[in-house]
């Protein structure tokens, strides 16, 4: 199970620093009209609420006590106005906050997704998918909540307390001062609890992200987990994390449970002060009965936001952490970017030259060292070698998914880092070891290689790739869905679709990383045929596992530990009686075995060795 390191939630501060706040406000700024609208609505609601309570006082003092109904009509009309205004205010703020929240989420997701497209493969190698996904889903949601409901709650708390305090001052300033003196105590208690609760919630969130990561790996890797019978060990690790999670959440809820009774205790104190001091004032004739009642109501009104404070701050805190993580993603500089003055050469036709290239994924673990190779325009070069030899790394460099650490790669004599990424990648077609399709139809997946292509061109590419036969046999043909990531198709079929996609894009360079998993002989022949179409027009790198492909290549590169072991044509290498010769004769034997097996009714033989 993964142990998050640099992407740990902990790294993100628990104080709202000015920079983050400014950036959050930056998200809201374009929508200031909305914000002004709902702040106005919430202020009006707060005032109406206190005014409403004030009408209660009037009923007691002006109607019930003097047994006089003359003021009743006016009071009732005022009530109606208040209720109507209230409804209007509630509608406005719910509508505006909802709208604002969605807008901000939408804009943030667009921005993040756009930014992700610019990041290099190396970034995706070292960042768990779950981490990235949370940034785009739950974090954007939480930020939107912060700037809408967080802003709203805060405004409401302030305006509500101000309005209640003002009405109390109007009714009787001496008693008002007594009540207001208790408020700082309450607020201090609330803030203290906030600190504690937030701490616990942060802890449980941190553990939660570890659990999510573990789940993600376990679910996506379920086949391997089962194959390696890792269930028991994983279960044990999982239990440790969930236990931690339980303890942290338990403490958080214990504190939360303690908070409310404490606030109520202090409020009761304030209430008894009102009764005591209010009673005295009433006896002196300085306070009416209705006023005492109104004071009690105002106290309750002022308590709402305070009781809510802990919750609001906790969510505020989470949202700030979300914002910091999200901004950290936005701030991640692509480690491969176009150099200043990068240009589009218009074509990638020309010799491809690796000149003394050093390359490594991780420091101190060189994959290629002093690697030199020139592949001529239009040539097909087959790369063979044991697993981990660096075959995929070579083609990764050609695609500029990574750049050489030392030396240079030149295309048509020009260092390819002087070209734009777009110029290079748009002219390379590739079929990967594990072909990647996207949910959608087969037609859409092929067209992915060249968005402007007509349906007929797509069919033609499908035909050239040799995908036509199996596609036509599907119920909906080219309109059939492939499932998420292409799960509905076999590896061989996915490769055929990828091949069609590459053919459609008419690449200058074609790269094929043959699947090691066994593909049936028919599909193999089809793939072969499809490749011919590409090999004819493009400079081709093929990481070959099949003898048929290897033999068809112009030259064969035998790679071992990132070094060129042998390089030459099929004939030349056979004559050398070295690695290739041994590989060839062994494969030949295995293929003979396979044919023998199929005669005996077995469907697949042993996978071809590298
Ligand atoms: P390659 O991925 O280039 O090997 O990794 P390969 O020849 O294509 O192997 P197969 O046939 O597909 O299995 C070369 C070396 O680079 C390391 C690997 O551990 C391997 O030793 N590597 C690869 C990394 O360190 N990080 C990566 O992301 C990929
Ligand atoms: Mg590979």
Description:
With 610 residues, the chain is an alpha/beta fold. 64% of the residues lie in helices and 10% in strands. It has 19 helices and 10 strands. It has helices at residues 18-28, 32-64, 72-118, 121-126, 129-171, 173-220, 222-227, 231-283, 289-331, 391-398, 421-425, 442-447, 455-465, 468-473, 491-504, 521-537, 547-552, 570-576, 579-599, and strands at residues 352-360, 366-375, 380-384, 406-411, 414-415, 428-431, 509-513, 539-543, 555-560, 563-568. The strands form 2 sheets. Strands 6-7-8-3-9-10 form a 6-stranded mixed beta sheet, sandwiched between helices. Helix 2 packs parallel to helix 5 (129-171), helix 5 (129-171) packs antiparallel against helix 6 (173-220) and helix 13 (455-465) packs across helix 15 (491-504). The protein is elongated. The chain starts with 17 loop residues before the first helix and ends in an 11-residue tail after the last helix. The relative contact order is 0.08. Magnesium ion binds next to helix 10.
Rounded Rg: 35 Å
Q: What structural class do the secondary elements suggest? A: alpha/beta
Can you tell me the overall shape? elongated
Please tally the helical runs, counting DSSP H or I stretches of 4 or more residues. 19
Provide keyphrases for this structure.
610 residues, 10 strands, 6-stranded mixed beta sheet, elongated, binds uridine 5'-triphosphate
How are the SSEs placed, and which strands pair?
Layout: H1 18-28, H2 32-64, H3 72-118, H4 121-126, H5 129-171, H6 173-220, H7 222-227, H8 231-283, H9 289-331, E1 352-360, E2 366-375, E3 380-384, H10 391-398, E4 406-411, E5 414-415, H11 421-425, E6 428-431, H12 442-447, H13 455-465, H14 468-473, H15 491-504, E7 509-513, H16 521-537, E8 539-543, H17 547-552, E9 555-560, E10 563-568, H18 570-576, H19 579-599
Bound molecules: uridine 5'-triphosphate and magnesium ion.
Magnesium ion binds at residues 391-392, 433, 513.
